[in-house]
Design brief:
By secondary structure, the protein is α/β, with parallel strands linked by helices. The chain folds into 2 domains: 125 residues, NAD(P)-binding Rossmann-like Domain (Rossmann fold), CATH 3.40.50.720; 162 residues, Dihydrodipicolinate Reductase, domain 2. The protein is built from 11 helices and 13 strands. It has a 7-stranded mixed beta sheet with strand order 8-9-7-10-13-12-11. Strands 2-1-3-4-6-5 form a 6-stranded parallel beta sheet. Strand 3, helix 4 and strand 4 form a beta-alpha-beta unit. The chain is globular. It starts with a strand and ends in a 17-residue tail after the last helix. The mean pLDDT is 96.
C-alpha cells in the first residue's frame, strides 16, 4: 500500500482528496496536515467524513511528512510549495503540487502573474505539467508533478486537438469561462459569500487572470508557436463546476468530419474525456463529482468559426481527481483507481 500524505487537508481540494482516496484500493492515508485545525478530528471540520475519516489533523512540515510517505499532495496556495519542496525531499518522496508554483516553466512569467518570488527555480526544469491525457509518458518518470489549474484543464483539453492538428487559426482564440464558487477556496472573502454571489453573475480577472499564461504556454506547445489569446472567467452562483465556451476561426476547408476525426484521434481511447455528438454541448450538472471532461462543438458556417464547449468538476478533474490520476500514473497503478465514479445527479 502506498503511504500518502496531504499537506493542507482542510481546504476544499484537500477534503476532496480525502473523499476520493478513501475509496482508493492501493493507498493508505498516512498524514493529514492543517495549521488552522491542528489537533482536531478531520470529521469535526467536515461532517460528511464522520465514521469514514476521524483521524486527527496535525501541523507537520513537508519535510516531516515526507519521512512517512511515498507520495505527498501539496494542497496549499501559490507561493508556499516552491519554498518547501527541495531536491533532498524529492529524493525520498514524490510530490504532486495542486498549487501554481511549478506550472509555468519561466520563472519571470510566474513572478509577473503571481506577484511573488519563486522559491526553487532550479526545480522548474524537472517539474512535469500533469495534464494526464496529453503528457502521460512524461508524467510516468516524474518525481514532481505540477497539477494543472481548473480553468486550464478544461480549456487546454477542449482546444488542443484543434490547435495541434492545425484546424484553427490560434491567434483568434477567445475563451469565455465560468466557475462555481468553490473555485475560490474555503477562505472567507466578501466577494464569494452567499449574499454577494446569489442571484448574480460577474466577470473577474478580466485580461489579468493568472490561468491565462498557463493556457497560453500549453497551447503554444501544441501549436509549436507562441499563442496569445483572450480569456475571461466568470463567477456563477453554484457550488462546483467549470464551463468554458471557446471560439476560433477555422482554417479554410476544414469540415465537421475533420474536427470529429481530430478529437477521436486525441481522446477516443481516453477514460476521462467524453466526446459529445456534434452540436451537443456539455453541462456542469453531468460531470459533478466525477473526473470526467465533457467536450462538444458546433461549426458556425455563417462566420467560419468553431464554438467548443468543455465542462469539468473544478474540485475533481480540475484539482484533486486529476492529482490522484497523476499519482496513479507515476506509481504504476491503474489510472482510474479511486476515480471510477459516475457523476452524481442531482448534486
Amino acid at each position: 500500500m502506498l503511504q500518502v500524505g496531504i499537506i493542507g487537508a482542510t481546504g476544499y481540494t484537500g477534503q476532496e482528496l480525502i473523499r476520493l482516496l478513501h475509496n482508493h484500493p492501493g493507498v493508505e492515508l498516512a498524514v493529514i496536515t492543517s495549521q488552522s485545525y491542528d489537533g482536531k478530528p478531520f470529521s469535526s471540520i467536515y461532517g460528511n467524513a464522520l465514521n469514514y475519516l476521524d483521524d486527527i489533523c496535525i501541523d507537520l512540515t513537508i519535510e516531516e511528512a515526507a519521512k512517512r510517505c511515498d507520495v505527498i499532495f501539496v494542497a496549499l496556495p501559490h507561493g508556499i510549495a516552491s519554498h518547501q519542496v527541495t531536491e533532498e525531499l524529492l529524493s525520498s518522496c514524490k510530490v504532486v503540487d495542486l498549487g501554481a508554483d511549478y506550472r509555468l516553466k519561466d520563472e519571470k512569467v510566474y513572478k509577473t502573474w503571481y506577484k511573488t518570488e519563486h522559491g526553487s527555480p532550479e526545480l522548474l526544469p524537472q517539474a512535469v505539467y500533469g495534464l494526464c491525457e496529453l503528457f502521460r509518458e512524461e508524467i510516468k518518470g516524474s518525481r514532481l508533478i505540477a497539477n494543472p489549474g481548473c480553468y486550464t484543464t478544461c480549456s487546454i483539453l477542449s482546444l488542443t486537438p484543434l490547435v495541434e492538428d492545425g484546424l484553427i487559426d490560434p491567434d483568434t482564440i477567445i475563451i469565455d469561462a465560468k466557475s462555481g464558487v468553490s473555485g475560490a477556496g474555503r477562505k472567507a472573502v466578501t466577494g464569494t459569500v452567499y449574499g454577494e454571489v446569489n442571484e448574480s453573475i460577474k466577470a473577474y480577472g478580466v485580461a489579468s487572470h493568472r490561468h491565462t499564461p498557463e493556457i497560453e504556454e500549453q497551447l503554444s506547445r501544441a501549436a509549436q508557436k507562441d499563442i496569445t489569446l483572450s480569456f475571461t472567467p466568470h463567477l456563477v452562483p453554484m457550488n462546483r463546476g467549470i464551463l468554458i465556451t471557446a471560439y476560433a476561426s477555422l482554417k479554410e476547408g476544414v469540415t465537421e468530419e475533420a474536427v470529429i476525426a481530430s478529437y477521436q484521434s486525441h481522446y477516443g481511447n481516453e477514460r476521462f474525456v467524453r466526446l459529445l455528438p456534434p452540436g451537443t454541448f456539455p453541462e456542469t450538472r453531468w460531470v459533478k463529482g466525477s473526473n470526467n471532461c465533457d467536450i462538444g462543438f458546433k461549426i458556425d458556417t455563417r462566420t467560419g468559426r468553431i464554438i467548443v464547449g468543455g465542462a469539468i468538476d473544478n474540485l475533481v478533474k480540475g484539482a484533486s481527481g486529476q492529482a490522484i490520476q497523476n499519482m496513479n500514473i507515476i506509481c504504476d497503478l491503474p489510472e482510474d483507481a479511486g476515480l471510477d465514479l459516475m457523476p452524481g445527479f442531482p448534486m
